[in-house]
Structures are given as structure tokens and as C-alpha cells.
Design goal:
3-stranded antiparallel beta sheet; 7 strands; about 25% strand
Length: about 140
């Protein structure tokens, strides 16, 4: 299982610096217990080149991106230990759909959500694309 203590440390430092407002992160990530699911027996470490997965993570240093899922349980706890209140921990689909519903309720957005815009929104929210793998954590202080 991949760990990144620097992420939790950075989040804690950012939380301590925040006097009033919100910290928000959107990334591929999981709650701690999800890292141990049988389908993740190989972990979450991945490499990509030209937006395509690469089978050997260390095969071409400097020519591919290496990534791993964020441990949202760890950064959530880091923020809470610094006094932040957790407002939300949801999928990107849930987060963006709620925002869109509020915006569209306030004005007629039907003209905005056609063609390419509709496809972009669907890519960001569809569970099979980016909607479910991306998670959103929102923590705040003083609101």
C-alpha cells in the first residue's frame, strides 16, 4: 500500500495557516479501508504516458507520470487535528452535480448545457469516467 506522509503534513500546515475559509481537494483517492479491498492487491501506484497507462511504472523515468491514490482518511484526520471541520467527503459526481443544480435553478442554463458543454459535464460526472474515481474533501474553519 502506498503512503505519502508529506501529503498529510502539507494538509496540516495549510489547515494551521487557514484562519477563516475552506480547504478543498479533488483527486483520485480512497478512504483508508478502501485501500485494502481485494481488487487493489497491486496497490494504486500507476504510470501514464500520453494519457495512456504504462505497465512498467519505472520503465521510462522522466518520460511518464507516476501517480497513486490519495489517502483521504489521512488528510481528513490531519485537517481535523488542526481544528478544521469536515463539511464534505463525496465523489466528484455528487459534488459537481449539486453545484450544477444550484446554478441551473438560479438561471436558465439549458442553452449552456448543449453539445460540447454537455459532453464535458458528463465526462466530469459520469461514474465510468471521472465522476466516481475522483473524490472531493472540503474542510473549513470559521464559517
Amino acid at each position: 500500500m502506498e503512503v505519502c506522509p508529506a501529503a498529510e503534513s502539507w494538509w496540516r500546515e495549510a489547515a494551521n495557516a487557514l484562519e477563516c475559509g475552506r480547504l478543498l481537494t479533488i483527486d483520485y483517492g480512497l478512504a483508508a479501508e478502501e485501500f485494502l479491498a481485494p481488487e487493489r492487491k497491486e496497490g494504486t501506484l500507476r504510470a501514464y504516458s500520453q494519457h495512456r497507462p504504462v505497465s512498467e511504472v519505472l520503465s521510462r523515468p522522466g518520460e511518464q507520470d507516476i501517480t497513486a491514490h490519495v489517502n483521504f482518511t489521512g488528510i481528513r484526520a490531519a485537517g481535523e487535528s488542526a481544528g478544521l471541520k469536515t463539511e464534505d467527503f463525496v465523489t466528484q459526481e455528487q459534488f459537481l452535480t449539486r453545484i450544477a443544480a444550484r446554478v441551473w435553478k438560479e438561471k436558465d442554463a439549458s442553452a449552456e448545457l448543449i453539445g460540447a458543454r454537455a459532453r464535458e459535464f458528463q465526462t466530469l460526472t459520469h461514474p465510468e469516467h471521472l465522476g466516481r474515481p475522483f473524490r472531493v474533501l472540503v474542510q473549513s474553519r470559521g464559517l
